[in-house]
Every structure is written in structure tokens, then in C-alpha cells.
């Protein structure tokens, strides 16, 4: 018997990965803005502070570029132009499945109702779903980027469960982020399966402190959960 009535999946870095390199997008931002490059993609990732502000993704990126510019003594840089260039360079259709993702999704659909809960807005995430061919793979889809509150707040999980007519204590959420997926699921009363891109990277938070019910090295291991495995 299936241990869950509903299974929720995250999208980015869980079911799929972006095939564009950070270097391609970072360089493209400068090319589009017509500015001489400074810094590296890693500088921008380190400068971005928490999740994007709701409804102002460009402003969030511009703040990051301003911090990188200050680090490299580049005064008066048009950070907003760099942010626009960054957004224009990203190809949201350049995605592919993580190993085992298609099989995990198929197994989930054989055992339970299935939902997608992603922090991205519909205008970006729907492109990825179409590119992956899984637009119709879910019984419910929640684009939390279009909601007032995103993961780890319980609201996106609550909406998915309401759409599925499922109870939290009989549901599982699968995601790559300890902070947004595992902690968010727990706040909403769900069990969580954690499937990071890489386990044990230096500087990563301690997964034990988040206590996911399952730790998966690959989504290829996910069907065993549904068959009563560890």
C-alpha cells in the first residue's frame, strides 16, 4: 500500500537543472548592458542576499551587481542594466531532467496524487514544464512566485494540498533545498525527502538539524520509498 496520499515536487534542481552555465549568463549580462566585465559568477551568487524580492527579480539582481561592483571598485555602474541583461540572457527552455526524475515522477503518479510546488513565477516555470514535456504530469501546480508568500512559508504547500484534497500528515514533499523545501514542508506538516544536487559540500547547512524523513542521493532512489523502503 502506498505510504502517501499526495506527493509534492519542487522543480528547479529537483526535477530539472538549467543547462546554461553560470558563466554564459554572467557574461551575457555584461554583453547585453554594453559594459566592461568585472567579477565572476561566484561573486554574484555570494552577493545575492536570500531569496528574490517578490515581484522585483531585476531589483534583486541589481542589488547583487551593485555589491559586486563595490567589491571591484567600479563606481557608477548601471546595475539595473546588468540585471536586465542577466534576465534577457537566461533561456528558461534550456533545462533537462535530473537523473531519475522522470522515473520518480512516474512512480509517484502510480501511487498518489501529485503536485508541483515551485517558488518561480508561472511566466518562467511554465516554459520549463513545456520544454520537459510535463505540463500535464501534475494534478495540481502551485507557482509560489506569484503568491504573496513563497516556500518556506506554509501557504504554497497548503494551496497544493487543498487543490489535491489531501491531508498534510499523509503527504510528502520532495526537494533539493533544506531551507525552502525540507523546512517549508515541515512547517506545513508534511514529511520531506531531501535530494540535493550534491551532498556534503563545504559550507552546506547540517541536514541533521532539518531532519528530513528521507535523504536521496538520486531521484532514482525515490521509488523505493513508495515501495516501503528506507
From TrEMBL:
InterPro entries (UniProt xref): HAD-like_hydrolase, HAD-like_sf, HAD-SF_hydro_IA, HAD_sf
Biological process (GO) annotations held by this record are: small molecule metabolic process
* Family membership: Belongs to the HAD-like hydrolase superfamily.
Q: What is the lineage of its organism?
A: Archaea, Methanobacteriati, Methanobacteriota, Stenosarchaea group, Halobacteria
Pfam families per UniProt: Hydrolase (PF00702)
Name one molecular function that GO assigns to this entry: hydrolase activity
Its required cofactor(s), as named, are: Mg(2+)
The organism's superkingdom is given as Archaea
Arranged from A to Z, the UniProt key words for this protein are: Hydrolase, Magnesium
User: This chain belongs to which protein, by name?
Assistant: Pyrimidine 5'-nucleotidase YjjG
List the NCBIfam families.
Answer: HAD-SF-IA-v1 (TIGR01549), HAD-SF-IA-v3 (TIGR01509)
Amino acid at each position: 500500500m502506498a505510504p502517501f496520499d499526495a506527493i509534492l515536487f519542487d522543480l528547479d534542481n529537483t526535477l530539472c537543472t538549467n543547462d546554461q552555465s553560470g558563466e554564459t549568463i554572467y557574461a551575457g549580462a555584461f554583453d547585453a548592458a554594453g559594459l566592461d566585465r568585472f567579477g565572476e559568477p561566484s561573486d554574484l551568487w555570494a552577493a545575492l542576499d536570500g531569496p528574490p524580492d517578490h515581484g522585483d527579480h531585476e531589483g534583486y539582481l541589481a542589488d547583487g551587481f551593485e555589491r559586486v561592483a563595490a567589491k571591484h571598485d567600479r563606481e557608477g555602474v548601471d546595475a539595473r542594466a546588468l540585471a536586465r541583461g542577466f534576465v534577457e540572457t537566461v533561456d528558461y527552455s534550456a533545462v533537462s531532467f535530473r537523473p531519475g526524475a522522470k522515473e520518480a515522477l512516474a512512480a509517484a503518479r502510480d501511487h498518489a496524487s501529485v503536485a508541483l510546488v515551485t517558488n518561480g513565477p508561472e511566466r518562467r516555470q511554465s516554459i520549463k514544464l513545456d520544454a520537459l514535456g510535463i505540463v500535464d504530469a501534475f494534478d495540481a501546480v502551485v507557482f509560489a512566485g506569484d503568491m504573496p508568500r513563497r516556500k518556506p512559508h506554509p501557504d504554497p504547500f497548503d494551496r497544493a494540498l487543498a487543490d489535491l484534497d489531501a491531508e498534510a500528515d499523509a503527504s510528502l514533499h520532495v526537494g533539493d533545498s533544506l531551507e525552502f523545501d525540507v523546512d517549508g514542508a515541515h512547517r506545513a506538516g508534511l514529511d520531506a525527502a531531501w535530494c540535493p544536487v550534491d551532498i556534503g559540500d563545504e559550507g552546506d547547512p547540517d541536514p541533521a538539524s532539518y531532519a528530513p524523513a528521507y535523504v536521496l542521493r538520486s531521484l532514482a532512489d525515490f521509488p523505493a520509498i513508495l515501495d516501503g523502503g528506507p
